[in-house]
Amino acid sequence: MRSVNLFCRGLDLFATLSGLHTNPQKSQLIISKAASGIRDSLLTTLGFQEGHLPVRYLGLPLISARLSITDCQALLQKIDSRIKGWEGVQLSFAGRVQLIKSVLTSFEVYWAMAFILPKGIIKEMIKRLRTFLWKGTSSSGYPKVAWEAVCRPIEEGGLGIKDILAINRALMSKHLWAVIKQDRTSIWVDWITQVRLRDCSIWTVKENKGAWGWRKMLSLRHPLMAYIHYRVGRGDSMSLWHDPWHPLGPLISRFPRGPQMTRTGLLSTVIKEGQWNWPLITDMECVEITHVLPPISEGPDIISWKSKDGSFNTSRAYDIFHPPGPKVFWSSLLLGPFKIPKNCFILWLAIRRRLSTLDKPWLNHTGGICILCTEGVSETHDHLFFSCSFPAVASLISDSRSHFHGPTVTGNKVFNGRHPDGVENMWLTQHLDRYWHH
């Protein structure tokens, strides 16, 4: 009760200085099981109503247990509501891509900055984005390209839509970085350091203790280790056994028995006048520790992210959880100042051989005959663009053969050894779009 009385005095002081008073009718007190014995005294002292988790703050649920799909319904409803608001608007595929990137993804990011999102909710979000991309606000349409491919950068043959799971992990890594960096301006970091990491570090604390969100966050730490640099200085802010200052990583993990030295000591205990000063190690298993010691720098210890300025980079963290793939040389056709997004999307589908020709299984017309010519052959990608005799496409076929590899063209081999210039490229995308919608 002493802390509650102190809290009340703080509220009174704030009211005196600011003129702002709490409204007991709109204020709630959420009581944990540990304090249930003094429930009545707490409610009487504060004059608040009793509340229960989860409650919402700035649109997010405040919850102490595992986040469930039910808790995330507000996120799904926001996405559904925004998509429904676009009903009646004629949107091209390219237009939908831009709305996904600029509008719908912002809802995901807001939540992903605060929580480890359950896999079930991520699947539901992907389902909605995928449906909107390929069907719009109607009920017709079929996914033409796998979502994993859509979520690759344009340079790698995708559409540049970010992967939700990787975004979530990258943003959660920022909280881990604050703990690693020992950001004492954060009350949360200070609490984590004093309570969760009392006798260890973020690298060696066990994953089977603490709340569900904390355990999930800890599962992200090991992929980050390769991107964090520990520079040894005075050694007074690094743990001797629990921090990865050594090339071998945290020594407690490598040498759990180790030499007879305190397991909670600082690195400064083995540094004297800027030089290593290790005691005699007689255990042969631990001799390796002193064989590959890093250099000691003047000044304080420094923990930095492996980037130009040493600061945490969310984009780099995203690449850790969504590793870059091989680049495709035809991505230049989709990037640049002369590109019309609507035309580029059709070209992207054509390169991937995913235009809705009659041979595609999702159309239930397997083996459908080309209706543009009288050759009686199946309507396939190769036939339409390289051998169809329909007069309206003769010029496109003639010109495209100077660039395309012919009937055996694949998504990885579009142009015959050269890239067209900007104007030629613009002509190709516009001509292809006009032909496809003929």
TrEMBL record:
One Pfam entry name: zf-RVT
Highest taxon listed in the record's lineage: Eukaryota
Descriptive protein name: Reverse transcriptase zinc-binding domain-containing protein
Organism of origin: Sesamum radiatum
Domain Reverse transcriptase zinc-binding: start-end pairs: 312-390
InterPro entries noted in UniProt: RVT-Znf
